[in-house]
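Team,

Forwarding the record for the chain on the shared tracking sheet. I've put the sequence and predicted structure together so nobody has to dig through attachments.
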Amino acid sequence: MQILKNKFDIIGNDPALNRALEIAVAVAPTDITVLVSGESGVGKENIPRIIHQNSRRKNGKYFAINCGAIPEGTIDSELFGHEKGSFTGANEMRRGYFEEADGGTLFLDEIGELPLASQAKLLRVLQSGEFIRVGSSKVLKTDVRVIAATNVNLMHSVSKGKFREDLYYRLNAVSITMPALRERKEDINLLFRKFASDFSAKYGMSKVTLTEDAAIMLRKYRWPGNIRQLKNVAESVSALESAKMSANSDKCLIGVDVLSRYIPKEEPNLLPTKSSFYQDSPEAAGEREAIIRMLLQLKQDVDYLKEVVAKAGLGKAAPAAIAPPEDLPMSSVHEMMPDDEDPEEQDFQEQIPEDMSIKSASMDLIEKVLRKHGGNRKAAANELGISERTLYRKIKQMTEK
């Protein structure tokens, strides 16, 4: 089992997690349809990859499709393909996922978001392997193993008429449930250490470790965003609290007082719910990567400014608060920044001249990078780790002053 976990980068020893992995390995050699259930962010995407890699189809194609992310008007075209001229914009024939994945595996995530009309077509493929491209009357055949996942109660959707009962039972031949993170108390600190260690290795920062009290706080939190949220917190703490690794310091010890700034306040009556902030799409991952890079740069700017202030004798060089990027979602700011500012930090900021503020330092950085690349905004945006659109907005702010 540990070999399997290492191969797919799965951390934890929870019995419910181990049971889910055992079922996945057991059904892998067959072509039976599997339904994976669990809250958003629990790692459901690992199950279909394990099944595919341990099946006779491992050399075939594997596609993961998020049914909730595809507009209703185009989902049939995405799944089953379309003929040239079948609708506006269909300038050529296109093969759908079921056709492309012939001989392989399709992972249909958020299956509960599939429109009823598309559900009927999916049922036909599961029963007979037959489908028809949009705009065609020709019946095509495919040999695809389907694994579906949901973070909603499909039986409730069936009772509301939003999901076909016959499709539900067809998909639910084997059911695998991934446990929520709050049900895996002993795994929480293991996961935090893994994420902090990965961040340290990637960015050359000191590795964040927790005091015993902080570790207890971590285990007691409800984690509505599950593993994705825990990873976000671990990376945020690492980015903002650790320093560049040196010969004298390769660890950064974090206590309850610091960790509490990154843990949202508990809402006793709040139930776990689907959150778009923790969706692990490529766009969200890229945006988060850019935010982290910007925060790291701002942190370095703050450290430099503190040294300048200290040398100039402008006052006590207390820790400065980092201003988040303007396009950072407020939900992210809430998790990564303390709720209340330290009075000492406010005093320190008041002693810094306006031209030495973090905002000014950010503008100076933008100007330097633009000069470095001869005014090439695309190259400058890439080095800064922000989008060209954000860079244009920053430049506009500079020129308006």
